[in-house]
Amino acid sequence: MTCFIQHPAVRLMLSASVCSGALLAAATAHAQATPAAAQGETAAEERAPGFEEIVVVARRKEEQLQDVPVAVTAIAGADLARQSVVSLSDLTRTVPSLQVLPSAFSANIPRFVIRAQSQFEPLFSQDPSVAVYFADVIQARAHGLNGAMYDLASVQVLKGPQGTLFGRNSTGGAILIVPQAPTDSFEGYVATELGDYGLRSFEGAVNIPLSDALQIRLSGRTYAHRGYTPGIGTGVRYDDADNYSLRLGVKARLGDRLTNTLFVTNFAASENGTAFKLFNARSTLSSTTLGQLALGELASSRNEPFHSVRTNIPADSTDVKTLTIANTTEFDLDDVTIKNIFGYRWVRSLTPFDYDGTTQNQYNGTVNLRGNQYSNELQISGSSFGGALEWIGGGYLFMEKGTERQNTLLDYRPTFIQNAQSIGRVKNESQSLFAQATLKIPGLDGLSATGGLRYTWDQRQIARTSFNNGNCALLTADVGGTPLSPCVRQAGYKADAPTWTLGLDWQISPDHLLYVASRKGYRSGGVNQRANIPAQFAPFEPEFVTDYEIGLKADWHIGGGTLRTNLAFFHQDYEDIQRTQTQTVSTGSSTILITRVVNAASARVRGLEADVLWSPIRAIQIRGYYSLADAKYKSWLVPIVGGGVQDRSGFMFANTPRHSGGGSILLRHELGGNAGEATAQFDVYTQSKTQLSDDNILPEGINPGYTTMNARLEWRQPFGQPLDLGVWVRNIADKKYYTSGVSVAGAGLGYTVKTIGAPRTMGISARYEF
């Protein structure tokens, strides 16, 4: 492993962690079994009537949500099921500032937006703006992440730059998916959902304590339904689901001080894929043979049902498989804890795309991605001076290798035709050292100061092969170049940078926490994976976000009830923004459309998040939340063909609603005797308009705002049985809305296609615990 490490200090630390891990493993044969204590449980503690506290790890230690001076939303595993959160995209309607959207390639490759920070493409050569972790292990590629959404302890969403404590730097935030760890009790559950569109969902878990020192947990889920969106004339129904996942958890307590927890999770999906509905086409397409036919289909589609498409993507064309291993070894030395987190992830996916959204083969293709990643993190944490100083430090190593093959057809004859095949082989490496400490300031009761620093070394290597119409599309020069022979070009990127955290928090009372914080995070630079001419292989640099945040977490006791108000106000300075720009390039006798990543702009993002929860009595719980994301470019100048520049400083940020929010009401009623409890929950989500593309192709690139409503009725523990029965309706009003999409208009020729939100669905559910 150490052959990939550049920095001597990181090499020494992480080599030691691997060696110590081997010694700890060897010691297991001689360890004396002791009674296991519950670890990482989110069993709630009643802090106020009607509110159950969730344990979060936003600062890499277990703390109650209301005690953490960080903007974070957390949902316990049991509440995920009750709020009908079955996929990551469902978090959009319950987490302030978070958008989870299907990417241009598949709903199984989601795109994340937090506080206006997002990334368009899931390429090996670009890191995401929002990092996703499963069992503390980074999921570098978004493929198959929906497979983790079952048998969970919690989902935690951290807002703002994460540049100190988490393995990979990110500018928008982090999503922590925490699986349910094995416990020392024989227990488990089975659950099912049945509904319209042929919905069949089955999941379950069984926890088996083999001894006081060893427990295992087996869990899994299958999820399938017919597609919501039929293809006109094809018989294929898109926006379907057909996937399954299995998970093994093993927890071993190897003596009084040593614990090892292992998770192995796989996921597989074979589906028809995302529906791309043609929303608009440029009139200039009439100059092309297939464009004339496409314009005719556009006219016809406007008289067809909203939930229908004219795409020609074949059935079962989307195939995604992943395997994730997360192993955490923890050694407790009273005031000091040593923790080692090893991770491995394997990804295979084949996904189609159809950017013309018609039955014509004018702009479509496939992406075949294969990759492996390894990570290892060594943490040393503890407390000093009687608990007045809490600290953590360590080192981190990440390695990833992947190959992406993309076939793209653009048939704009007689203007041009591009039948392109490209292969990108990418190797990514990152190492870092980090430390953070929180000091309770002497003499000032309840006041604490936090400081943290991380230094990161990043490196990328890329080997690109590209053919167009059977000829090499890589050129020897930017102007008048000849094709390369052999047709492969290599390029690299290397950079290092510090990031930091500063904060001050005041625990005014047990129920009131006020904090201020400033953090700096970045998204790594790299090499353009779609480059064709030498200048396009020039590396793009990291983008940086420095934020300033003030927040209040407070519980107010009113009569016999409690009102919780969590508020956060933030300002971000956003520099060296990475943007993908499209242009046409001549390669001898051919013309091709290419995209290029550049550090294009600077911006500022201001906003606020308000999350209010009120429980006047236990039988009633009312929630409302709101997010403002006011994103504005300071400068963005783009060169245009023929000379001059285009000023894009007035453009909208893509996939960023300025306003979003929602609310819910939960009613509980005890039925008397042992008949159980009846509950009714109603929730609503709304957001303002969004722009599909950073290029702001107007007006067709605008997605209007929308509002959806959902409801759920449950009968819990009828007649004393450990059973919950439910009936639910999602999108009650059958709102017709778009979630995301793609606008492409190279050379004045192009389309806008959009992905469609799910229609009204309804079903029943049952969950039995034992």
TrEMBL record:
Segments forming domain TonB-dependent receptor-like beta-barrel: 310-732
Membrane topology, as annotated, equals: Multi-pass membrane protein
Secretion signal: which residues? Answer: 1-31
Outline the extent of the TonB-dependent receptor plug domain. 65-174
- Keywords noted in UniProt: Cell outer membrane, Ion transport, Iron, Iron transport, Membrane, Receptor, Signal, TonB box, Transmembrane, Transmembrane beta strand, Transport
Pfam families in the record, alphabetically? Plug (PF07715), TonB_dep_Rec_b-barrel (PF00593)
Q: Which PANTHER family match?
A: FERRICHROME IRON RECEPTOR-RELATED, TONB-DEPENDENT OUTER MEMBRANE RECEPTOR
What does the sequence similarity comment in the record state about its family? Belongs to the TonB-dependent receptor family.
Q: What is this protein called?
A: TonB-dependent receptor
